Amino acid sequence: MKKQEYAIVDIETTGGNASGSRITEIAIIIHDGTNVLDRYETLVNPEQDIPPSIFGLTGINNEMIANAPIFDDISEKVLEMLTDRIFVAHNVNFDYSFVHHQLEQAGFKWSAKKLCTVRAARKIKPGLGSYSLGNLCNSLNINLENRHRAGGDADATALLFSLLLEWDDAGEIEKMIKKTAQDQRLPPNLPQEDFNNLPDKPGVYYFYNQAKKVIYVGKAINLKKRVTSHFTGNNIKPQRQHFLRDIHGISFEVCATELMALLLECTEIKKLWPTYNRALKRFEAKYGIYQYEARNGYKYLAVGKLSKFQTCIHEFNSQYDGINLLRTLAEHFEIDHRFCKYTRPEEGDFFQNNETKDLPEVSFHNEQVDNAIEFLLNNRPSFAIIDKGRSSDEKSCIWIENGHFHGMGYIPRDVAINDSDEVKNYVTPYKSNQYIEQLIFAYAEKHPRKIFFNKQLFIS
């Protein structure tokens, strides 16, 4: 039976992602687990300019690669050296994504089992200060020449790989190269234990960068499964490549239900504003209901875009929601439609009104407007959503106060709750926003049996 062979690969590129950048140099060392069997190294013409920052890092410039072969010309040689061998690299997903992409563009369908020497070193030599190739070579007395060139880095990776094989008493490398080995898909800087600690439960997870700052917050029905999904596939887009490189740690908080996880995710994104969270940012409120008083003494209600310099009565994600509520208020409190503006006008528009026939008496009209605002601010529903807990000995609770998300928490199952004040003793306060309120009211409408201590239903 043929001995398992490894292709130890290092590349230099024009940039940080395979979708928009190209290989400028490649080195492949064939290793049988004991000895080096073959070696290949060449510059590659990327058919695009090399940025000054890349030249500063690698020393490779446009003149050096002008007469080098393009990748198509070496693709068969590269494929031959990689076929039926374990693909080994330091931060393997980076090198693999480029080689896979450029072989595919050259017309070849190729895939391979991977081995990351960053992750292998973390397992076999835990507790080192840094696992970058340069720092590992310093820590382990490995000779590293021609740094940031494919040949020099590949030679150093081959020496590191030989030492790791020698020190691997627990058979970690054999476990890692199995196709199902999950840690092979993990970001290179993420400690394995952070991933292993994730439970198969609903909750919220946090990704941290090297400075311990939260860069992404997500919610999940199954924490381990959802986090794993971030690391699967061969997405070569720059955003994902940068995202994975930035992940240096994970923490999590278990929630009893998916709704609680979603509410916690929303409040944490609003509080932390992580770099890579984009989806929920579009749910920021953009419109509000405003009150104005004209020089003739009449009060107006208007829907308009939010402004930093004016305080609105109530916020909305969309103009449509604001218009619907203003129409409902006007009908319920019999406010003359001439004093309702469905797009916020210029200030002067409030003072010009040609429709002056049969206007209501000023004090009566203004009182109706004040009543509508009072109702909107103080007479929306208050209720609790009581649901299952994180374990069998507790229940979860979400409390809504005057239509706003007040907080959530957990109540011991053996505690009898008789009124709303007792419920509030068990909840942790959180900030509310329009999107969260929409989520809660939609859930309450769909699950009426989970609603308790309901007070003051809002007008519809």
Features:
single chain; 460 residues; alpha+beta; five-stranded mixed beta sheet; five-stranded antiparallel beta sheet; 16 helices; 17 strands; GIY-YIG_endonuc_sf; GIY-YIG_endonuc; GIY-YIG nuclease family protein; RNaseH-like_sf
Explain how this protein is built.
Helices cover 35% and strands 22% of the residues. The chain is built from 16 helices and 17 strands. The protein has a 5-stranded mixed β-sheet with strand order 3-2-1-4-5. Strands 16-15-14-13-17 form a 5-stranded antiparallel β-sheet. α4 links the parallel β4 (86-89) and β5. α5 runs parallel beside α7 and α12 (258-272) runs antiparallel to α16. The longest helix has 18 residues, at 150-167. 33% of the residues are buried.
Topology (elements, then pairings):
Elements lengths: L5 E8 L9 E9 L4 E8 L8 H7 L3 H4 L5 H12 L3 E4 L2 H14 L8 E3 H8 L8 H7 L10 H18 L4 H5 L15 H5 L6 E6 L5 E7 L2 H8 L7 H9 L2 E6 L3 H15 L14 E7 L5 E7 L8 E3 L2 H14 L7 E2 L20 H17 L3 E7 L5 E8 L2 E9 L7 H5 L2 E3 L4 H13 L4 E5 L5
Parallel strand pairs: 1-4, 4-5, 10-12
Antiparallel strand pairs: 1-2, 2-3, 6-7, 6-8, 9-10, 9-11, 13-14, 13-17, 14-15, 15-16
Helix pairs in contact: 5-7, 12-16
Organism: Flavobacterium tagetis
Pfam families: GIY-YIG, RNase_T
Protein name: GIY-YIG nuclease family protein
